[in-house]
Each structure stands twice: as C-alpha cells, then as structure tokens.
User: Fold this.
Amino acid sequence: MYNLTKLIIEKPANVVFEAFADPAHIKNFWFTSSARWEQGTTVTLRYDEYDAQTDIEILEVETDKKIVFRWGEAGEAGNIVTISLNEMDSSRTIIEVREEGFREDDDELMNILLDNKGGWVYMLTCLKGYLEFGINKLRAAIVH
Assistant:
C-alpha cells in the first residue's frame, strides 16, 4: 500500500535535488537536517517548531533524479519514501513523492493515508514557495 503525491516546480531538477540534499536549503521549507543526504548515511531530521525529531536512512541517491529513504516509528520496519525528479525542460521539474509500507489491515488506514497525503502536499507547497518565490516562513504554519 502506498501514497503518491506529485507537483510541478518551476526550477530545474538539480535545484530541486539540492533543496533536499543540502542542509542549508531543506531547513527553509521542511526539516532541519543534521547532514547532507548521501547514500548509506543516517540523517537526523528536526522540526523544532513541533518539537519533533526522527532519523532517516538514505537508501539510494541518484543525483538530480532520485532520493530513497526509510523512516518510521522506533522498533518498526518503517516506510520507504522515494522522491523522484523528472525534468520537463530546463526550467520545470515534476517532483513525485511515493511513500509505501502502510499496513492494509490497519483499522485507521484511511485516516493515516489522508494525513500522510496532506503532509506531502503541504511539504511540496512549502518547497514550491521556497524555490519559486523565496518564501521560507511556511514550514511551521500548519496547526494540529
């Protein structure tokens, strides 16, 4: 079971890729990252505004094309997230986020998928605002 979210970013794929991989950029639209996202590393992501922290395991990196990582609750196998970049032309990229590993037998599956989808849409919207318009104050605007 997976969730898929896509958005067009009006920037080339290398710019979108660096927004995730480089700790100096990712903090402007999503988490604060402890290190550059490179294959085989474990990176700590921190969301100070919500007092949240998690570790992710970077499983695969294809520069300017794809990042695959695992995250999840402690003691569980976790979900796999694949961020794919498809450059349409030199100034536009389709970014696709696919998260898989949801349990189909979970009684709360629909709520979990809806919450997950909303989170990815929000993150991608913050990314778009940051890369296209220089807005870096959206990441903590969502209220739970």
Notes: The chain has one domain: 2-133. Strands lie at 2-9, 32-33, 42-47, 52-62, 66-71, 79-89, 92-100. DSSP finds three helices and seven strands in the chain.
